[in-house]
Automatic annotation (TrEMBL):
<dbReference type="InterPro" id="IPR011989">
    <property type="entry name" value="ARM-like"/>
</dbReference>
<dbReference type="GO" id="GO:0006606">
    <property type="term" value="P:protein import into nucleus"/>
</dbReference>
<dbReference type="GO" id="GO:0005829">
    <property type="term" value="C:cytosol"/>
</dbReference>
<dbReference type="GO" id="GO:0005635">
    <property type="term" value="C:nuclear envelope"/>
</dbReference>
<protein>
    <recommendedName>
        <fullName>Importin N-terminal domain-containing protein</fullName>
    </recommendedName>
</protein>
<dbReference type="InterPro" id="IPR016024">
    <property type="entry name" value="ARM-type_fold"/>
</dbReference>
């Protein structure tokens, strides 16, 4: 594994290492467990030296599967990521989540989307205090008027807003929920946004800890066409090609119903930490908020 994840190698050499690691997780978890810290460190080094989004995405899927492997002790997995250094970042957790939050909308494959989405739900459900101390990219800010040429793009780096990690995860989950509802045609009961049961929280009532979770700017990252096509496949449970990775068909996570999983995540967070939930909702777009309202009203 260390050789395949060697950061000195060409990225193309490591393109299929994700499938190999996934098999170790699925079939030899007890043998892999003692080596997870070394594996994570190697994954981080490989990701930091690669410009290939496909390779990074495949390694994000591995991290997501390790989140599931750690359940119900996801807090301990977060602590492990905090203890592993990453060049240029405070920890491996900060680096991995900065990449993951950017790549989630580009991840392809019904299995991969299911694994990563449910892992994000597990992470935010811990309400681990360190998550709120990490800031990630929110949405792209247009810094100049006119057409952006290739030469201008090279000399002018992208400028992103920064939002707390829980706010980003919450928005990503709401995005997925909205996509699922659109796929299954859950549009019959249109909800008037003004007729919301959510309590209005005044700024003066907020504690510093609550404010730390809030986000004033929503994520505007649009999922790719490939990502949307893969989302559609999540519901084709009876088709032979429902999952493009045959090696993962025996994974028990394939049995997870994504809509039910997300519904439970939002409902449990609403029930267990109402102030946090309401502040996270402030960073949602209207379509995201409506999607969440639908599952809360069921």
């Amino acid at each position: 594994l260390n050789r395949l994840l060697d950061p000195e190698l060409e990225s193309s050499v490591s393109l299929f290492v994700g499938s190999y690691i996934l098999q170790l997780i699925l079939h030899l978890p007890s043998h892999l467990s003692p080596h997870i810290p070394e594996l994570i460190a190697a994954i981080v080094r490989r990701m930091q030296t690669s410009d290939i989004a496909g390779l990074k995405s495949s390694l994000v899927v591995i991290i997501a599967r390790l989140v599931h492997l750690s359940a119900p002790n996801v807090d301990q997995f977060i602590n492990l990521l905090l203890a592993i250094p990453a060049q240029g970042y405070g920890s491996s957790l900060a680096y991995i989540m900065s990449e993951w939050s950017q790549l989630q909308g580009e991840i392809q494959g019904a299995y991969q989307i299911k694994v990563t989405t449910t892992a994000l739900a597990l992470l935010i459900s811990t309400r681990h205090p360190e998550l709120s101390r990490i800031e990630v990219n929110g949405h792209l800010v247009k810094t100049s008027a006119g057409i952006t040429t290739r030469s201008k793009a090279r000399v002018t780096p992208d400028n992103w807003t920064k939002i707390p990690l829980p706010s980003k995860i919450f928005a990503l989950l709401a995005d997925t929920l909205a996509e699922i509802q659109e796929q299954v045609g859950d549009d019959a009961d249109n909800i008037d946004e003004e007729d919301s049961d959510w309590e209005e929280v005044q700024n003066g009532d907020a504690t510093p800890q609550d404010i730390m979770y809030s986000a004033s700017v929503p994520s505007n990252a649009n999922p790719s066409v490939e990502h949307l096509n893969a989302m559609a496949k999540v519901f084709d449970e009876d088709e032979d090609d429902s999952y493009d990775d045959d090696l993962a068909k025996n994974d028990s996570l394939n049995e997870v119903k994504l809509l039910d999983f997300l519904t439970n995540t939002f409902v449990n967070l609403w029930d267990s930490d109402r102030p946090l939930f309401e502040y996270l909702c402030q960073g949602l777009t209207n379509p995201q908020r409506v999607a969440v309202q639908k599952v809360l009203r069921k």
